[in-house]
Prior knowledge:
Layout: E1 4-9, H1 16-25, E2 30-32, H2 33-43, H3 45-55, E3 60-61, E4 64-65, H4 67-75, H5 81-102, E5 109-113, E6 128-133, H6 136-147, H7 151-159, H8 164-169, E7 173-176, H9 181-197
Parallel strand pairs: 1-5, 1-6, 2-5, 6-7
Antiparallel strand pairs: 3-4
Helix pairs in contact: 1-9, 2-5, 3-5
Amino acid sequence: MKSLLIGITGEMGSGKSLLSSFFEKKGIPVYSSDKRSKFLMNQTKNIKENIIKFFGNKSYKNNKINKTFLSKKVFQDKDSHALKLLCTIVYPWILLDFKNWFFSQKTLFSIKESALLFESGSYKECDLIITINTPLKKRIERIIKRDKLSEKQIMNRIKIQIPDKEKEKHSDIIIKNDQNISFLQKEAETISNKIIQNIFKYGKRGQKN
């Protein structure tokens, strides 16, 4: 039996990475789409060449992705054409990278953490989907502290994501992350136990076999 795939998603600053870290501490493999995409953008020649071709030489600085420059290009585009183009360049490589990672896993279940799980269409490959929802005010506070962005910059990025209400319609588990860290840790423990108990009952998208 192959590893069950659990998708974790939520809007920017919702606590996806923190939730994933609790699963990882329990020995559950986690694929972070954000971390891997940054790695691939820095290491994959084809990606680098195409990003420079379409976004300019300033896209890389000292042979590393220039996040400040590229973010301005992508998130100040009101029609999201730049973001779609960037996804077209990077996503096929992320997909291949993820597949290679996933099929090497031997655990009962594995986790794919992605802010764009629905936007990319990769939710279709998940057996269960967890959406983590955090009040906007808390998310903005976290992102300002973490990424040193302005509130306007944050809102520009949030606007391009599918709203949590839409994600929740297609999710199996919804976490309201409006309490403390220990609450989120307990949620991870409860969910992990629930998945293990039902590991043989579920097929794609949480439907019983």
